[in-house]
Amino acid sequence: MKTPLNTINDLLLCIKKIDRTRDQSLISLIAATGLYLDEIRHISSQDINDDLTIIHTTGKRPRKLSISSFAKPYLNQWLLERPNSKYKALFISLTGDKTPLSQRGVDNIIRKWSDTTNLNFNYQKLRTLSHLSGKPPLSSPKPSPHSSQTSSDHSQTESISITHLVPIVSLCLALIYKTYKIVVK
């Protein structure tokens, strides 16, 4: 039975066991930003700023996302080691024509390392970790110097368990559904 993925620290221990910088970067970037599969597939190195703190996505709904600090070393290493390719995509196949990864390719990488490291995670769990990584949204104002938030508050945010989040989300969905049924009558 696999160990459940509950915190960023669990994931970091797993990432250290991965021997491919592409896969380390891919998994950590999903957990650090919450990128959608299509965004992962189409992102290029030009979409990331020079100090690896912000990523700009393109497509139907462009977004500007901050990158959590734990993913920066893996992303930087992949940018240095990425083989040349005629494709602009950041994540490419390491065999053959070096084409951009497909959705199935991304899923296979995640599944492979989940099985190899014996840690139970998938794409959706990695995206959920991005909300728990303790980074402030880009649009929110910075806390004032007189703010009562301490570094211990920040570390508590990082250690929130996914297993604690699921019942809350389920309850919210149930309440929304019941409200919808009442309104429809």
Would you kindly provide a written description of the structure presented here, covering whatever features stand out?
The structure is a single chain. This protein is mainly α. The chain has helices at residues 8-15, 21-33, 37-42, 72-81, 103-117, 123-132, 151-158, 162-184; strands at 3-4, 54-56, 64-66, 119-120. The chain folds into 2 domains: 3-132, hpI Integrase, Chain A (Orthogonal Bundle); 158-184. Helices cover 50% and strands 5% of the residues. The protein is globular, with a radius of gyration of 18 Å.
Structure in a nutshell:
The protein is built from eight helices and four strands.
Helix content: 40-55%
- The CA-CA distance between the termini, in Å, is 46 Å
CATH class of the largest domain: Mainly Alpha
CATH topology of the largest domain: hpI Integrase, Chain A
Question: Given the helix and strand composition, which structural class is it?
Answer: mainly alpha
User: How would a crystallographer describe the biggest sheet?
Assistant: 2 strands, parallel
Report the mean per-residue pLDDT as an integer.
Answer: 83
Q: Please report the total strand number as a whole number.
A: 4
How many H/I helices? 8
CATH superfamily of the largest domain: Intergrase catalytic core
Strand content: 5-15%
CATH architecture of the largest domain: Orthogonal Bundle
Dominant shape: globular
Strand order in space, largest sheet: 1-4
Q: Write down the domain tally.
A: 2
Q: What's the order of the H and E elements?
A: EHHHEEHHEHHH
Unreliable stretches, pLDDT < 50, 5 or more residues?
135-159
Report the C-alpha radius of gyration, rounded.
18 Å
